[in-house]
């Protein structure tokens, strides 16, 4: 009995390890996952300071406006308050500068008129207005970023503000990629009839990079035992190993056999999906091995459904599965029951709804319809006919689908 799609993915996610921690310079932490919670070493802001360019005053002096105050000092951002503010006086102050003792409000420059050492306050003044108080953002010891948070620019800002020049993050996965097959030639050679360029190594490497991991290209294992053994053994030294092709029923499909010899325990082979049926997954110690079918479309789709979530999980991400959005089918779709089908589609937004039409020929040998697709409709295992107008689950494959052109 073939394993179901979601069960296969669950088995993978349950069995992959979380990689260890490394400390990296702050900027290199962007896009990584924080491995230890950040507790604030100090409060933010560190002192009461002005939120406006203007004048620090005593609100009580401005109970009835307009009123005129004498300017007795100036504090730029980065300056220090030298004098307390006496009744009837004001201090010129810039945004971010510390509030001088005695003041309890800041009047923005637009609400004043300055002339020859005095300032006229034109608008009513509330006590505490336009002051950012010490510790109002973050108190010392606060948990400001929990562990397992994806680090984006706001987290970078918070980490920087807390003095974190080096940041503990989960390690990037080093992912070995091995292509198999006698028909393959490396990029740079002109393929003759019967040979094809090893494109899977590149699509996989690009996909590995896209999830923030580091591809390690092992080249091509020819269809003989010795080559497979040598290169698969090398791949097992990485954090994860991906193979392409050599996993269906062909005479020379050696991948699973040699992996077993090398001590990889197979957790499943063959999944009830199309394309991608012959996918296998195994583990040696804590190293996951993904054996993906060789058809380039199947390779990419199985990477996206199985390997990407696994690598993200290994690198500490909590949310690893692409979300489904609802989309309306533009035309009738027929399928055989028994397998979840991934339908390559072109998605557009019409009146705020996703509408999907097939991107063309769905045979797994057809690469062009993958290039032309910006989404995958995920059709349920037992469905056989989905009439135009049906609502289906859809995964967006390109961020720009819902983005505006101008
Ligand atoms: N009797 C059966 N035959 C096949 C079955 C089956 O269940 N029973 N499954 C079919 C399905 S589905 C697929 S998918 C393929 C998968 O086969 P393999 O993973 O063993 O891959 P190959 O047969 O070696 O290659 C398939 C196809 O992909 C091309 N290829 C391979 N490697 C690369 C590469 N690195 N870059 C670009 N393209 C590559 C290869 O030339 C073939 O055209 O098996 C079916 N057969
Ligand atoms: O399932 Mo194969 O992976 O159809 O191309």
TrEMBL record:
Keywords: Ligase, Magnesium, Metal-binding, Molybdenum, Molybdenum cofactor biosynthesis, Transferase. One of its GO terms (biological process) is Mo-molybdopterin cofactor biosynthetic process. SUPFAM superfamilies: MoeA C-terminal domain-like (SSF63867), MoeA N-terminal region -like (SSF63882), Molybdenum cofactor biosynthesis proteins (SSF53218). Pathway: Cofactor biosynthesis; molybdopterin biosynthesis. It catalyses: adenylyl-molybdopterin + molybdate = Mo-molybdopterin + AMP + H(+). Its EC number is 2.10.1.1. It holds the Pfam family MoeA_N. GO terms for molecular function: ligase activity; metal ion binding; molybdopterin molybdotransferase activity. Its cofactor is Mg(2+). It is an enzyme of class 2 (transferase). Residues 176-313 form the MoaB/Mog domain. One of its GO terms (cellular component) is cytosol. InterPro entries: MoaB/Mog-like_dom_sf, MoaB/Mog_dom, MoeA-like, MoeA_C_domain_IV, MoeA_C_domain_IV_sf, MoeA_linker/N, MoeA_linker/N_sf. It comes from the Bacteria. PANTHER family: GEPHYRIN, MOLYBDOPTERIN BIOSYNTHESIS PROTEIN. Catalyzes the insertion of molybdate into adenylated molybdopterin with the concomitant release of AMP. Belongs to the MoeA family. This is Molybdopterin molybdenumtransferase. It comes from Desulfuromonas soudanensis.
């Amino acid at each position: 009995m073939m394993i179901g799609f979601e069960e296969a993915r669950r088995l993978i996610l349950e069995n992959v390890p979380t990689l260890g921690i490394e400390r990296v310079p702050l900027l290199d932490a962007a896009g990584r996952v924080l491995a230890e919670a950040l507790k604030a070493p100090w409060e933010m802001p560190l002192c009461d300071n002005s939120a406006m360019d203007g004048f620090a005053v005593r609100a009580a002096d401005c109970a009835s406006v307009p009123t005129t105050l004498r300017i007795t000092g100036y504090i730029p951002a980065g300056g220090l308050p030298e004098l307390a503010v006496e009744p009837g006086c004001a201090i010129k102050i810039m945004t971010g500068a510390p509030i001088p003792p005695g003041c309890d409000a800041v009047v923005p420059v637009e609400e004043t008129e300055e002339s020859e050492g005095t300032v006229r306050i034109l608008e009513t003044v509330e006590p505490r207005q336009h002051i950012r108080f010490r510790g109002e953002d973050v108190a010392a010891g606060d948990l400001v970023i929990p562990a397992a948070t994806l680090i984006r620019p706001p987290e970078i800002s918070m980490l920087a503000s807390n003095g974190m020049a080096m940041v503990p993050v989960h390690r990037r996965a080093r992912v070995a990629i091995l292509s198999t097959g006698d028909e393959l030639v490396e990029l740079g050679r002109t393929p003759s009839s019967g040979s094809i360029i090893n494109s899977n190594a590149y699509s996989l490497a690009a996909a590995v990079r896209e999830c923030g991991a580091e591809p390690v290209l092992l080249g091509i294992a020819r269809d003989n035992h010795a080559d497979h053994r040598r290169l698969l053994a090398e791949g097992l030294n990485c954090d994860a190993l991906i193979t392409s092709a050599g996993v269906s029923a062909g005479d020379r499909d050696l991948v699973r056999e040699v992996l077993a010899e090398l001590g990889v325990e197979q957790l499943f082979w063959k999944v009830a999906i199309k394309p991608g049926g012959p996918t296998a997954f195994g583990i040696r110690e804590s190293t996951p091995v993904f054996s993906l079918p060789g058809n380039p479309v199947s390779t990419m789709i199985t990477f996206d459904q199985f390997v990407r979530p696994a690598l993200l999980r290994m690198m500490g991400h909590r949310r690893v599965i692409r979300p489904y959005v609802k989309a309306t089918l533009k035309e009738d779709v027929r399928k055989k029951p028994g397998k979840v089908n991934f339908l390559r589609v072109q998605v557009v937004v019409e009146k705020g709804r996703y509408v999907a039409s097939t991107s063309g020929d769905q045979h797994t040998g057809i690469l062009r319809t993958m290039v032309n697709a910006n989404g995958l409709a995920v059709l349920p295992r037992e469905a056989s006919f989905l009439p135009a107008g049906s609502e289906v689950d859809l995964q967006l494959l390109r961020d720009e689908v819902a983005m505006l052109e101008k």
